[in-house]
TrEMBL record:
Protein name: DUF5717 domain-containing protein
Protein species of origin: Dorea phocaeensis
Domain DUF5717 per the UniProt entry, residue ranges: 1-753, 795-1094
InterPro entries: DUF5717_C, DUF5717_N
Length: 1097
């Protein structure tokens, strides 16, 4: 660089600027984590010239083996320090190459490569790569998922992804876990199944029949499927399958319908497909033996209707004759269905007897074919016939014989209720209800449950209620029957109610009896018994609320009634103020759970105006309760009302503020997916601090402080689900007043910072992490302080940091002065810095010198005049650099017609006035600039001297002729005519010309090989008389081409003054003959005297 400047300062511009070629113009650096990358790039030129220069990197991580280079080709070796950078980091930078062939920029892209795991399908570096691997080979993806190498893939993924996997390793690493992981990180959608149709119908199956069902899945992945068959006639070959068994997206299920398990008529079965996310049902119906009489149960139905109506008749709801007519009609229908049935015939007679239609009954019995010894005869039917005849006779020996016969038969068939009923009706020993009840209770042990049996027992209690001494299974069945058929009398109902109130334990059967009794007789006593019984049974479900409400409205005095009233009350369905008696009861404290107590207080707050003095009486305990619940982080809709009313900023303590923040971030999560056990929350830092049991009715309440928190569901089977199941979240308490209160507290106290405290920048940290990892203002203060502490000592890394901050417009006078002294980089960057230094009036001559030097070395000058002027006016200008710059730009001006600012020529003129040594081209440029222009008088002498000097050095250009006549005469240019040619560098030029005078013209062109006046500028001088004309053209030849210019002409100036030898001769050519003769004589005399006076030695 110094040699080139020295040559330029002497006006030596002979060395050509090489055309530089780069092997690459955009370098891509793939760097492993924590590695130092080694690379290089090459410069060359097609000529034999050497390339010399320097390289400036835009990154502090780039270091060169040698910052300077020389050669052809020239190889520049560098390293990129990737230590401390996270994979995925990308830096776009440049290499600024300043060489003798110009200034160039090579862009580079440094990419820190992520860690990877090599599989048989290639590199896996990200979750996206892992998803692609799972699509291609799920089993290999599963092996990778189970290995600890998988951590390398997730190391630089989203933290939520990393922490999800980290926790899943503690739960399960099976295929289902991998499926949940992929769904949770949004790399695939959840698998759902679709059935082909809703069901299948088979008819008259006589042998095992196979059926098929196609199930389809919506996407790839793994999911276990359990197949459950409901119906013994259905058998599936594989009760458990998975999506691995699918061919494409379809799997065909085979099942077999087994006829040995079918009954006549319609057989219903279901295939259920149970997955972790859903249950699908496929109905299978088999219609077997279609000729089977589906009306086979009609006789039972008709008999049941007859008995039911008879019970209604006994209860007084149906008249006896009406019942007899209805029963007779139904019996006629039954006898049509089975005309041979003797039992139907006898039952018709019995109906007539009950209805006092004796004659009709007799007629039936007389026509009945009775034969006690007939083979196959039902003994009960025979006894039934005898019983009816005895009923007609009423009393006498026949009745005794019948009773004896029935008694004997009963001894053989003691489980027959019909026989016992005949005995109870005929035997006078059982007229007492006590005796009848005793026998009936014994019969109950045989499993007798007929309606008429219960009716007979009930009639005993109806006749004498005091027979009810206990409430065993038999008694409850009888009472339930009586209540169900509305047979219960009021007397018996009250007796039962009183007796039930004395029971120590709750009974569902007794509650149902009392419930039915109360519908018949709405007596306070019965209501009291019902509520007492419910409280004994601790019945606190919402369905019991109406009973407690009725008791409260009736103002019954029952222990714990008001507690159970509040417990069973449906808060969502409750409207309006609670009864005043409730508030009076709980005025001095309560044992309600917090939800019910909160509802009680919230109702009082909501209807404060109606409450009157009660509100004031409750206020103290309500305030205490509110703060207590806040500290426990409880939140319900009722507590929300209390918090808004009683929680004020003045009463907040740090502990209460912590609790309020938790409540403000409380969410209720619910899902319709069954069998969920609990809800887990993976916090932002990956730790599970919340594991909340899930209730299908109430959901679960969790606290979500950050949007990065993840909800995970755990099922009763131990499976964990991420986003594969649909769930809802509802924020329970979002009040802007309290949120703002918490925010202010956080700002003032510095708690709850979501972000970790940012690391303070140091020079060691900056070297590792880079400037972008820190607050640029903090880095700026660090650099400024370091410069002052080190007394402006040079440090390469400090210079880099200061300039990076300068690009971010973070600077002050300290860092600017430091950069002015030491920064060296791309020319455009240094010029930006120079402009800011000018604005801050900071001395910039040092960086100005570096700018001019670099521009001259690279021969890449642009808008540098102001920089040079500032440098020239400083006290530390280097004369070689000054000469080199003025010489180079003057050459560009004269040879290349470059536009320059006037200040450059003013400086050249000043240097000439001070007799400083300058290249001749500077003086030629000065003469060219002022030729034909008005200039100050003080330049007159300077330009005159320069013109004289240039002519003495035979460096003459046509623009000299624009100066004063006296100066031109002095340098003998006044009578000269010049032609000028600007050739291409390296070309050879010949001039072809011929003279023409008046009517005489030379026949051919003269040829003259021209020598350049300066570099590729050619000048030819002629002395032409007024009647002479020169025709000429130039021929330019290079190694590759030859150019011939257009022909042009030039003539002498007829207005040239008549002084000098050539002036006088030129005048003579225009005189008349007489005058010309006298002038020629005078010229001859002067020439002779001159030869005598001015002799040459």
């Amino acid at each position: 660089m110094k040699n080139k400047i020295q040559k330029f300062s002497k006006g030596d511009f002979q060395s050509l600027r090489p055309d530089v070629i780069f092997d690459e113009t955009n370098l891509v650096l793939i760097i492993g984590e924590g590695e130092v990358y080694r690379g290089s790039f090459t410069l060359k030129t097609n000529s034999d010239q050497m390339i010399r220069g320097l390289v400036y990197p835009s990154s502090s991580r780039v270091h060169f083996k040698d910052q300077g280079f020389e050669g052809n080709p020239a190889k520049v070796e560098f390293t990129y320090d990737g230590r401390g950078l996270r994979p995925g980091h990308v830096e776009e930078g440049t290499f600024t190459v300043v060489c003798n062939g110009g200034e160039y920029e090579l862009s580079f892209t440094a990419i820190i490569e992520k860690p990877y795991v090599m599989t048989s399908y290639g590199k896996v570096q990200s979750t996206d790569d892992f998803r692609k691997l799972a699509i291609k080979d799920y089993s290999e993806a599963g092996r990778l998922f189970r290995s600890r190498e998988f951590y390398e893939i997730l190391k630089y993924e989203n933290e939520r992804t990393f922490y999800l996997y980290d926790n899943m390793r503690k739960w399960s690493l099976g295929e289902q876990a991998m499926e949940e992981f992929l769904v949770g990180i949004k790399q695939k959608e959840c698998i759902f199944l679709t059935l082909q149709g809703e069901g299948m119908l088979f008819e008259d199956i006589t042998e095992p029949t196979k059926g098929t069902l196609a199930i389809m899945k919506n996407t790839w992945g793994y999911m276990p499927i359990r197949i459950e068959a409901e119906g013994a006639f259905i058998k599936v070959s594989r009760p458990e399958i998975s999506t691995d068994d699918f061919v494409g997206n379809v799997y065909e299920i085979e099942y077999v319908v087994r006829p040995e398990y079918l009954h006549a008529g319609r057989n219903y079965g279901v295939l259920r497909f149970v997955t972790p996310y859903e249950i699908l049902s496929y109905e299978i119906e088999v219609l077997q033996n279609q000729e089977y009489d589906e009306n086979r149960r009609v006789p039972e139905l008709l008999m049941a209707q007859i008995i039911k109506e008879y019970v209604g008749c006994m209860a007084g709801r149906i008249e006896l004759n009406r019942w007899v007519d209805s029963a007779t009609e139904k019996m006629a229908a039954l006898r049509k269905l089975n005309p041979q049935s003797e039992m139907y015939q006898l039952r018709q007679a019995h109906i007539y007897l009950i209805g006092n239609r004796i004659e009709e009954a007799k007629w039936i019995l007389e026509n009945y074919n009775y034969n006690r010894f007939a083979i196959g005869k039902d003994p009960i039917t025979n006894c039934y016939y005898l019983f009816l005849t005895a009923m007609i006779r009423g009393k006498g020996s026949h009745v005794d014989r019948v009773l004896d016969e029935i008694g004997k038969t009963y001894m053989r068939h003691q489980d027959s209720w019909e026989l016992l009923n005949m005995i109870l009706t005929l035997d006078t020993r059982y007229k007492s209800p006590y005796k009848r009840l005793e026998v009936l209770e014994q019969q109950y042990e045989y499993g007798t449950h007929e309606v008429l049996f219960y009716l007979q027992a009930y009639l005993c209690y109806k006749e004498k209620p005091t027979l009810l001494k206990k409430l065993g299974d038999f008694e409850l069945q009888i009472l339930n029957f009586a209540a169900k058929y509305r047979l219960m009398t009021k007397e018996l109902a009250l007796y039962v109610s009183n007796f039930a109130s004395q029971q120590k334990n709750y009974s569902d059967a007794l509650f149902r009896i009392l419930e039915r009794i109360y519908k018949m007789y709405s007596e306070p006593m019965i209501l009291n018994t019902i509520c007492t019984l419910l409280i004994k049974g601790n019945k606190n479900q919402k369905r019991y609320y109406p009973w407690y409400q009725k008791a409260v409205d009736a103002e019954l005095k029952i222990a714990q009634l008001y507690e159970y009233y509040m417990i069973t009350l449906d808060e969502e369905g409750a409207h309006g103020p609670l009864p005043k008696s409730i508030f009076l009861y709980f005025m001095h404290g309560n044992t309600l759970n917090y939800k019910k107590a909160a509802f009680l207080y919230a109702n009082l707050v909501t209807y404060e105006e109606q409450a009157g003095d009660l509100y004031l009486s409750y206020r103290e305990q309500m305030v205490a309760f509110t703060w207590e619940q806040l500290m426990k982080r409880h939140i319900t809709e009722s507590l929300r009302i209390l918090y808004k009313r009683f929680c004020t900023e003045e009463d907040m303590t740090p502990e209460r503020m912590e609790a309020m923040r938790d409540v403000c971030f409380a969410y209720k999560v619910t899902t319709k997916v069954p069998n969920m056990n609990c809800v887990l929350v993976i916090e932002k830092d990956g730790v599970i601090r919340q594991r909340v049991p899930y209730d299908e009715d109430g959901g679960a309440i969790i606290f979500l402080y950050d949007k990065e928190s993840r909800i995970v569901w755990e099922s009763l089977e131990g499976r964990h689900y991420t986003d594969s199941i649909v769930y809802e979240t509802k924020r329970l308490f979002y009040e802007p007043r309290f949120v703002e209160m918490c925010r202010k507290y956080a700002v003032s106290s510095g708690v709850w910072e979501q972000e970790d405290e940012r690391e303070k920048p140091t020079f060691d940290n900056l070297k590792v992490n880079g400037i972008d990892a820190y607050d640029e203002r903090e880095v700026f203060r660090l650099c400024s302080r370091r410069i002052r502490e080190d007394n402006y000592e040079e440090d390469e890394f400090l210079s880099y940091l200061c300039f990076k901050l300068f690009q971010k417009e973070q600077y002050d006078k300290v860092t600017l002065m430091y950069l002015a002294s030491y920064y060296c980089g791309a020319t455009r960057d240094m010029k930006k810095l120079w402009k800011v230094l000018q604005e801050y009036e900071i001395p910039s001559y040092k960086i100005g010198e570096r700018i001019i030097t670099q521009m001259l070395f690279s021969e890449n000058l642009f808008q540098e005049e102001s920089v040079f002027e500032d440098y020239y006016l400083s006290d530390s200008v280097y004369f070689r650099l000054k000469q080199a710059y003025l010489g180079y730009v003057s050459r560009e001006y004269v040879v290349g017609d470059r536009m320059l600012k006037p200040v450059v020529f003013e400086i050249i003129a000043r240097e000439c006035a001070q007799k400083e040594d300058l290249p001749d081209i500077c003086k030629a440029a000065l003469l060219k600039y002022y030729a034909g222009k008005q200039y100050p008088e003080e330049l007159d002498e300077i330009l005159h001297c320069v013109l004289r000097e240039m002519c003495e050095k035979q460096l003459v250009f046509p623009f000299y002729l624009a100066y004063q006549e006296e100066w031109l005469r002095e340098v003998q240019l006044y009578d000269k005519t010049m032609i000028f040619y600007h050739a291409k560098p390296g070309s050879r030029v010949k001039l072809y010309y011929k003279m023409r005078q008046e009517n005489r013209e030379e026949l051919g062109y003269r040829e003259e090989s021209m020598m350049p006046m300066y570099e590729n500028l050619y000048v030819k001088q002629f002395v032409l008389f007024a009647d002479e004309i020169v025709s000429y053209y130039f021929q330019e030849k290079s190694d590759t081409e030859m150019t011939v210019t257009e022909k042009e002409t030039i003539s002498g100036d007829g207005d040239t003054a008549k002084a000098g030898r050539y002036g006088k001769l030129n005048s003579m050519t225009q005189m008349r003959p007489a005058t010309r003769r006298q002038a020629m004589m005078t010229y001859e005399e002067e020439q002779r005297l001159a030869d005598q006076l001015f002799q040459m030695y």
